[in-house]
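Lab notebook: predicted structure, single chain.

Context: the supervisor wants predicted structures on file for every construct in the current expression panel, including those that have not yet been purified. This is the next one on the list. No modifications to the sequence; it matches the entry in the shared construct table.
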Amino acid sequence: MTDPAGSRLKRFAELGLAPARFAKVLQASDRTPLLQVVKTAVAASLAWFLCLLILPGDLPIFGTIAAILVVQPSINQSFSRALERTVGVIAGVVIAYLAGAFFGVESWLILGTVLVSLLVGWVFRLSQSTTAQIPISALLVLTIGAQTPGYAVERVIETALGAAIAVVVNVIVVPPVKLKPAQDAIGLLGAEVANSLDDLARLIAEPSTPKQRMSALVTARLLRAMELKAVAAVTTAEESLRFNPRRSVHRTALDVDNRLLETLHVLVLRVPGMIRALDDRYDETIHTEPTAAGLSTEVARAAHDLRLVMQQAEPDEAPVDDVPTLTEPFTVLAPSAAHWILIGSLLEDLRRVREVIVEASESS
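Prediction complete. Output recorded below exactly as produced.
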């Protein structure tokens, strides 16, 4: 006996229309913090009652919507959204008022006003949020308040009140500072860069299979994705500190994170290239080169000192031997004719790697 529901689900899955896929479209990757939900509810309630007190007669829809939209994860975002919302409402109200004054209220006028509002946002290069708000405000004024004297002005005042209340609530109940996710992302990136350096040291010192070299190369190439994630996390942390009353307390930690990112950026560019060069020009005798043992040791020392730099920046990390090892001169013996290009390339990249790690170690 066939199962029609199962058959439909199978067809949906084949077409990319499975219910789980719809759920993923609707759901965010992270749950909105409960604190932000509570602040939004408080701001909306305060806006509702204050607007009713100051502007009795009409339900304070504009002010409540503004309060809901303006409460954002950071104070800086709340300021931006408040400005966008207020400017959008003012522009929409002015356009609707002028259209109604010159042409009256006609069905064709409503559609024309919406189109003109969108063009105004495009001409002045306004943000997407502001551009969307202009026709919405114009539409509401033309359809709801066209026959009510003073309706347009009251809606502007109401919106400004709602936005101001939301900003005040967000300032009083300070949003969380998102430094920990940034520090975690940078710590993971630093650990993986050090692991890739260890992989490279082993590949130089010992014979390896193509599979081992390819595995090390694929892992090293993933460092770029981890770096982008760390950059995004630091950007979010900076956003959470902007206009935040606690920003001075955390500014030093954020500066350390930015310096670490600059160091790791150079390594993310260099280390995969070193492993790729070794894989491209590898042969079974590379580890017998007189310089290979010393080169492998220096790469391993670079991994050690990078972990030390990360530990100094993040004292909570697992302890590492606190003595830097990239301090002794490295004597380079002349490589064979078959390997001089590879050895030279690795030495130059190692020089740059050593330079940035030593610089980061001295500045931490």
